Fold dTDP-4-dehydrorhamnose reductase.
Amino acid sequence: MKVLVIGSGGQVGCALLATAPSAFTITHASRAECDLADADAVRALIGDASPAIVINAAAYTAVDAAESDEEAARAVNAEAVANLVGAHAGKLVQIGTDFVFDGSANRPYQPDDERAPLSVYGATKAAGEDHLRPTDLLVRTSWVYGAGGRNFVTTMLRLMREKDEVRVVSDQIGSPTWANGLASTIWKLVGKEAAGTFHHSDAGVASWYDFAVAIQEEARAMGLLDRSAPIIPIRTTNYPTAARRPPFSVLDSSATRALLQDGYTHWRLNLWHMLREEKALG
């Protein structure tokens, strides 16, 4: 089966290429290679590749920048999905985000829970979801990171090397997710011919502060850091940002795990795997 992966230059796109099963014939394109907001360009890309399935890993993920650049965020996160649906009669696999929820829940969010995004980023991702057909597949995820990418883990490693102390928000709760694990789940869902909305994140929950502490502990043990920097927990109000974040964005992945019958992997174990990859990159 021929699969086109769009957004192959990003961390999820790279993970999809790295974990692709041999049963699939993969072609790919980065955002730089195709303007997804250009319907003609998208039709040409789909026509040349002739895929049975398209996986869209491209997204405008600069959450704070989106607040002052809604047009660009909407073009990539919403209009691009409409263009892909219009150009491709087969299944579209779209990667979604926990930011479509407002964080007011007291339990993990299920796939059919009401969306109420707090930010332009979340709103444009929700608008992209609305273009999907019942036969398409939406996989929402949270707090994604991968080796070699620009993400919370690599940012923390840099700050812990450079700063005398690191201040990290402790009142936003979610589930860190390794890009490779997400990619593996997507391929399994595709293999199951799944359609509709599914959630995937690593098992367990953490605050950003908890995540930072674990990053430093694992990185020190692995030799990625040669010293420990004090990590200071702070409240969201002490770290103002342009975009509002959901204070609680844990996703319920039980339906995904039940379909795939593959069990849960805790986020700390996957963090260890990612840091090993990061160390190998030098």
Summary: Residues 2-281 form a domain with the Rossmann fold fold (CATH 3.40.50.720). The two ends are 35 Å apart (CA to CA). The first strand starts at residue 2 and ends at 6.
